[in-house]
Hints:
Elements: H1 2-21, H2 25-83, E1 103-108, E2 115-117, E3 124-126, E4 131-133, E5 140-141, E6 145-151, E7 168-179, E8 182-193
Antiparallel strand pairs: 1-2, 1-6, 3-4, 3-5, 6-7, 7-8
Transmembrane segments: 20-50
Organism: Candidatus Sungiibacteriota bacterium
Protein name: Type II secretion system protein
Amino acid sequence: MRNFRKFLLARDKISSSYFLAGFTLLETVVALGIILGGIAGAFSLTLHLLANASVSKNKLVAVNLAQEGIELVRRLRDNDAIASTTPWDQSIPGAWPGSGSNIYRYMIDAVTDTLEPYSGVNLNYDSVSGLYNYSNPGGTQTIFNRLIEIEKPPNGFREPNVIDKSQQIRVRATVTWLERSVTRSVVLDQILNSWK
């Protein structure tokens, strides 16, 4: 009996120090699962952010190209208004008096500052000047396509009793691009009035 008691005491000392000395297999598996889950989550988030960075960058470029298109048409209107010897919309084809309410489709170039019939070609990027244009074939072709639509008189945009509809044109700039097999687009509208 005495030996049995010594055995039990010795066993209790060994087992308590044994269990305090390390982790069980279950604890190790749970800890590894938590660590791997955290790493996989961080990796997935990083991939998602990198993918969205490209989409955000291209959308920012597209919004700026659409705004530039509207501003270039506005500059044509301003130049006509300043000349004062020509109608305010003389340089804007399709907006001439009597042209009806059809929508006219154009592309506009920041370099030549002219409206050309829309042909569906993508813009080129000139890395020297930093401009997107159609007139520099030596530039790098981009994924962006800009369509300028001009409508006179504009349908549905007139504010009542503010300005005569015949003194307004609607300019819509649509920039489209293909990214990861998805066609994306940005559309901006602007009503331009006569300066009279």
